[in-house]
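Input chain follows. Return structure tokens only.
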Amino acid sequence: MKKLPQRFLLLCLLLVAILRLPSLFEPYWYGDEGVYLTLGQAIRKGLVLYRDIHDNKPPLLYLLAALSGNVFWFRAILLGWMLTTTILFWKLIKNLFPKQEKLAEISLFTFSILSSIPLIEGNIANAEIFMIGTTIAGFYLYFIAKKWSQYLLAGIFFSLSVLFKVPAVFDFATILVFFLFIAKKKNYQLLITNYFFLIFGFIIPILITIIYFASRNALSYYLNAAFSQNLGYLFSWRAGTMVARGLSSKIGLISRSGVLLVTTLLIFLLRKSLAKPFILITIWFLFSLFAAALSERPYPHYLIQVLPSFCLILGILLTSGRTVIKRLAFSLIVLLVAGLVVVQFWVYPVFGYYFNFLGFATHLKARAEYFAWFSPQVNQTYAVANFLVKHTQPDERIFIWGDEPYIYALSRRLPTGRYTVAYHIVDYNGYQETIETLTKNPPRWMIVMEEENRLFPGLFNFLNSNYLLEEKINSAKIFHRRSIIEID
């Protein structure tokens, strides 16, 4: 009997590997990965995160990008990570539902597919796809914990998730809320002790990062970029600012908070008629869905946070014999669908993605055509990067006005200043800082993307006074510095 479940797990692992294989051959095309790899490159060259180069996520993703060095190894690390995550998810399911093979198989099979295909960006090395691994590990350790060290380790894994991306704190909140559902007088003291070690474990990794960045004179930069600025980012969506969108944004947040509160209260009232695993999964689903919809941004990779609990809910819906459980599970999926409709989450094509790869793998498509399927800009990105490699030194800085971070990553050149993309300069009001850096350390080469129409006060006066147009590659204008710099 044991061989059959293990065989099913192996088949799912093989499925994950096959579905992820094309991701290893993708070009440099996804903007956020370009930012991660550029920051990873900066780490490899000795720069301090946040102080010397900026992005708005906690540090673990950039450390993985530094370890990988390029998009192939970044995706290869992700492949290994997701194989491990799939095994952990299987172990979690088997511990939650040890005698329900069909539920386990449906949940794992669904997870293996949806976490691997490009529908919700499972193929991309974003923070969410990494953090579900540490989150699942945290839930697994929490559920099997018999001693304080396991609770401590569970807390550490939940903390690592937050150090990939801040919304993972809602997954940890699931465990804290679950305490209210299971606390009784006879086990209260033991629960308090266990939760003390859980919370202490959660604090440890975050505290280590605080100590590290304080030692590098970068603490204020770290706290501001990874946490403070993230609050504006997570609670709003408006191009060019991190400020909330006014009344409609507040109403949306209040409405979602109300739904979360009411549904959690309903589960609390029904808790005596529900099994603990179902209660835990339901709270996990509700809190992760709230986190995914928090900013009302329609980015599909936000849904990855909901994926593990959704797969479990789906398995319960299709296998449970209890009517009340089926109705609750169905209601949760209806709630998810409502969230998808309200936020209008985007999705990526699946079949076209694999047909594009097959065409390239069988030499029916040339490389340029294969690259262009991902984005019309990809071939231009490679051409500009090749130009820079030929005309600059390895440690030379460049500046790009536009949202093309992959040019930095591909050319292995760092930006002049802390910002890798134009929208960061705009969103975080980095105009003055960037102009001062350009004036103090003018790069030999500056690139302006024609499609970039956001205003940058002072940039073009500086550019026109001190640079000459050297080359134009599609929409990329490449400027070379004059021998004499004029500074106003």
